[in-house]
């Protein structure tokens, strides 16, 4: 698969080789003849190189930030549009209700002040009894007028209609709010197919790893593969931890607490912190055959921390981890299985994995996964 500069001139095989110098000097997407393909297909080779260039962890993170910013922008626009629409509807509704206020001044219809004045005039002998009587007759006729009675009774009908329209308004607004309260669903068909494919691939990988593990020469009585299957499927995690202490082989395996050392600006937003965790854990899969643990994001908005407790075959940090670019950003502390404090730390991480409920080291668990 590989060749050096000196032997490249002598190369006569039709098999495409990878230049060792390019392997060290070029980014992965710029290395000729990489990755090696079973069938020589230039289009497929180009597509794979494009993916290697455009889907690095950094570019995926940048793309995710772009998508999140777009979602924020869409909702900001929708919010502005809704606020403006509601304001215009409010003005129109107020005008419509104002048009309903057609109340009459019934105090004028049944105004008795003139009658009082006539009585005072009669007492002061400014008018005689006959004049007072005539005025009373006229006033009585006005009060008995059926039209006036209808006008008065109509006021109650107007009020009832306004109250009914208020109820209708509230109902219509509630219905509109309910529409926006409904969950927005994106098309999950593609995601479902992708997950099914991934499950099939992971199942095949797991089967291959199990075969490799069973075929390897083990000198330790601790079968970590069987233990992983046991604790992951055991609902009572404390029972799983108790079984771990029974089986743990301190001569062949070691326990470690790892913690990400944040820099300024990191650990403030949950999904970004989860991306950091996932990117590192994905790279650590090179050693997961011989390891197990929990790894998660803990804390509150603005102050998230990435931590975990792992156990692996070997008494020191594997070279596979040390070669990772992110290795230096983590603190690695070896735990002593004889110290109760260290045992408690493992149990705390391994038995508290419920999102937004479990508490580990005083921090709420936000995004916790097995490393297995």
Automatic annotation (TrEMBL):
EF-1-gamma C-terminal domain boundaries: 206-372
GO CC entries: cytoplasm; nucleus
UniProt cross-references to Gene3D superfamilies, sorted A to Z: Translation elongation factor EF1B, gamma chain, conserved domain
InterPro entries per record: EF-GSTs, EF1B_G_C, EF1B_G_C_sf
Name used for this protein in its record: Translation elongation factor EF1B, gamma chain, conserved
Organism: Pseudocohnilembus persalinus
Domain of life: Eukaryota
Keyword Coiled coil carried by entry: yes
GO MF, one example: translation elongation factor activity
Pfam families assigned: EF1G (PF00647)
SUPFAM superfamilies hit by this protein: eEF1-gamma domain
Coiled coil: 152-183
Keywords: Coiled coil, Elongation factor, Protein biosynthesis
């Amino acid at each position: 698969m590989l060749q050096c500069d000196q032997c490249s001139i002598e190369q006569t095989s039709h098999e495409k080789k990878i230049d060792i110098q390019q392997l060290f000097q070029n980014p992965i997407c710029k290395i000729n003849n990489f990755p090696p393909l079973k069938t020589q297909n230039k289009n497929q080779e180009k597509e794979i190189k494009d993916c290697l260039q455009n889907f690095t962890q950094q570019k995926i993170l940048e793309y995710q930030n772009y998508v999140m910013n777009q979602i924020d922008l869409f909702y900001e626009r929708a919010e502005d549009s809704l606020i403006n629409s509601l304001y215009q509807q409010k003005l129109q509704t107020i005008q419509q209700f104002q048009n309903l206020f057609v109340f009459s001044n019934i105090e004028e219809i049944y105004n008795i002040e003139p009658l009082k004045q006539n009585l005072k005039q009669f007492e002061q002998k400014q008018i005689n009894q006959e004049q007072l009587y005539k005025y009373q007759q006229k006033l009585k006729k006005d009060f008995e007028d059926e039209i006036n009675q209808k006008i008065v009774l109509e006021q109650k009908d107007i009020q009832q209609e306004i109250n009914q329209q208020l109820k209708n308004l509230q109902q219509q607004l509630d219905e509109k709010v309910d529409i926006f309260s409904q969950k927005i669903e994106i098309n999950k068909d593609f995601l479902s197919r992708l997950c099914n494919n991934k499950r099939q691939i992971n199942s095949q990988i797991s089967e291959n790893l199990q075969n490799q593990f069973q075929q390897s020469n083990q000198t330790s009585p601790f079968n970590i593969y069987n233990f992983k299957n046991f604790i992951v499927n055991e609902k009572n995690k404390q029972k799983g931890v108790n079984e771990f202490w029974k089986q743990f082989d301190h001569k062949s395996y070691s326990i470690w607490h790892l913690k990400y050392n944040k820099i300024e600006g990191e650990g403030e937003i949950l999904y970004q912190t989860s991306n950091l965790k996932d990117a590192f854990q994905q790279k650590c899969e090179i050693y997961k055959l011989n390891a197990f643990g929990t790894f998660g994001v803990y804390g509150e908005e603005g102050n998230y921390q990435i931590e975990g407790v792992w156990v692996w075959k070997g008494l020191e940090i594997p070279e596979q981890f040390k070669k990772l670019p992110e290795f230096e950003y983590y603190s690695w502390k070896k735990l002593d299985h004889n110290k109760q404090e260290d045992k408690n730390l493992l149990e705390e991480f391994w038995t508290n994995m419920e999102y937004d409920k479990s508490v580990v080291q005083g921090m709420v668990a936000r995004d916790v996964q097995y490393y297995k």
